[in-house]
Design goal:
The chain has a domain at about 5-170: 3-Layer(aba) Sandwich (Rossmann fold), CATH 3.40.50.720. About 50% of the residues lie in helices and about 15% in strands. The chain has helices at about 10-20, 40-55, 70-75, 90, 95-100, 110-135, 150-160, 170-185, 215-220, 225, 230-240, 250, 260-270, 285-310, 310-315, 325-330, 385-400, 405-415, 415-420, 425-435; strands spanning about 5, 30-35, 60-65, 80, 140-145, 165, 190-195, 200-210, 210, 245, 340-345, 360-365, 370. It has a six-stranded parallel β-sheet with strand order 3-2-1-4-5-6, with helices on both faces. Strands 7, 8, 9 and 10 form a four-stranded antiparallel β-sheet that branches. The chain has a three-stranded antiparallel β-sheet with strand order 11-12-13. Helix 5 packs antiparallel against helix 20 (about 425-435). The longest helix has 26 residues, at about 285-310.
């Protein structure tokens, strides 16, 4: 029996989706699925949801639960993390403090001042998980879904280079599906090459049956109806010739162009009819999580009731989705080889991005092996923003691993959005205030002076 450990299983939506996908594989249908979370109520709701999937599919799988991380990891063949360090009452200040200084953030879970401080609070836990994996299940594959993806994966991979660690994000396959709809082709006919860093990877090739779809996509995004669905990303596509992976709300924070003035925020970061996901409104993530805190349990109960009474919902739940994790686990444990876009350390894989940065590129998974595929140079028009951001993230990770607060300040000083709005002196003041607000959550820093 294979054992797969879910650390942070109280992220019920993620957990039940991944469990549903895993059990569709013959090799994994009788696995032990060990759910671990520190929140007892969420853990129990995750157990109930996953047990319903097992019962509905008549799978011989076994669900176990624990609040003890080491118990969950002991003897695991695969590990998945979907954790969040701190309640919204803690990390909301990652959004609120920069706003005081004029830096307008919508989501802030990936990079920039909010993403860096989220990483500083989260990386110590991730390193503890890696330490336990090294001791208790060193041959397991470890797949991370927790943000900030690139910085966390970089810190773990640098510290534990002998572990098989990769980070997964659904933005690549989600964006590919969106573009196939715009190009009016079947997603199963699409082939692509996508590379860069997490949330700033670009589709270097996008084809259907060997035909380049970019000319058709270019015409599509010039129509107002489609342009308004993803204003930021579509504007970037028109300028840079290649399509970026993550949504407009996120990408508006990663560059110099869209959030530095009120009029630009109103133009590019305001929801239009037919827009997808968050469009970039200020503090979107805070409002979303406050709502989720209130409604999560009701939503889980409604999902389970619907599973009992809605045939279409049952069919959807029991059909394998597009997340990579289950296919990777299957390949790692001896099933079919699987190619995915994963987060790995750059070792000459993207040749015009700094080595030792965490890059998001095609990776092959086979039995007990992860093999990243060399991409070479990124195109000149996208390489600057990818390479520059990768260097900033590498600096922030080094600051986190060494407890050097000045490196944290220097990384945020180079953040494109922050630097477009603030002076160096203002950035220093802002970072000092953010350190002070997070003092009790950052024991790895002996001092906050810089």
């Amino acid at each position: 029996m294979k054992k797969i450990a879910f650390i942070g299983a109280g992220s019920v939506g993620f957990t039940r989706g991944l469990v549903s996908d895993l059990l569709t594989f013959e090799l994994l249908k009788d696995a032990e699925l060990c759910l671990m979370d520190i929140d007892e109520e969420r853990l129990e709701m995750a157990r109930k949801s996953c047990q319903k999937i097992i019962d509905l599919g008549k799978y011989p799988a076994k669900i176990t639960t624990t609040k003890n991380r080491r118990e969950a990891l002991k003897g695991a063949n695969g590990v998945l993390t979907t954790v969040l360090c701190g309640d919204v009452d803690v990390w909301q200040h990652d959004i609120f403090i920069p706003k005081k200084y004029g830096v307008d953030i919508s989501i802030g879970d990936t990079r920039g001042p909010a993403g860096v401080f989220r990483m500083l609070r989260t990386l110590p836990l991730m390193l503890e998980i890696c330490k336990d994996i090294e001791e208790l299940c060193p041959d397991a594959i470890y797949l991370n879904y927790t943000n900030p993806m690139a910085m966390l994966c970089s810190g773990m991979q640098k510290t534990y280079p002998n572990l098989a660690i990769s980070g997964l994000c659904h933005s690549v396959q989600g964006t590919s599906k969106m573009m196939s709809e715009w190009a009016e082709v079947e997603i199963d006919d699409v082939d692509y090459l996508c590379a860069g860093i997490n949330h700033l990877a670009f589709f270097l090739e996008y084809k259907s049956k060997g035909v380049d779809l970019y000319p058709k996509l270019l015409e599509a995004v010039k129509t107002q109806k489609i342009f308004d669905q993803e204003q930021v990303r579509n504007e970037m596509f028109l300028a840079l010739d290649y399509y970026v992976t993550e949504s407009s709300g996120h990408n508006s924070e990663y560059n110099w162009w869209f959030r530095k003035r009120k009029d630009l925020i109103e133009k590019y970061c305001t929801e239009k009819e037919g827009s997808r996901w968050s469009f970039g409104e200020y503090a979107y993530i805070v409002d979303a999580y406050q709502k989720r805190k209130i409604e999560w349990k009701k939503d889980v109960i409604e999902w389970m009731d619907k599973l009992d009474n809605d045939e279409e919902h049952r069919k959807l739940v029991m059909t394998r989705g597009h997340e990579y994790a289950a296919s990777i686990m299957n390949a790692w444990m001896g099933g079919n080889i699987f190619e995915f876009n994963g987060n790995v350390q750059n070792d000459g894989l993207i040749t015009n991005v700094t080595n030792n940065a965490c890059v998001e590129i095609p990776v092959l998974c086979s039995r007990n092996k992860l093999k990243p595929i060399k991409v070479g140079d990124l195109p000149a028009q996208v390489a600057p923003i990818v390479g520059f951001t990768a260097q900033i993230e590498t600096m922030a990770v080094e600051g986190a691993l060494t407890g050097n607060p000045k490196l944290i300040y220097q990384s945020i000083a180079h953040d494109p959005l922050t630097a477009a709005v603030l002076s160096l002196a203002e950035i220093k003041e802002m970072v000092k205030e953010m350190f002070e607000k997070n003092r009790e959550y950052l024991p790895q820093f002996k001092t906050f002076d810089f």
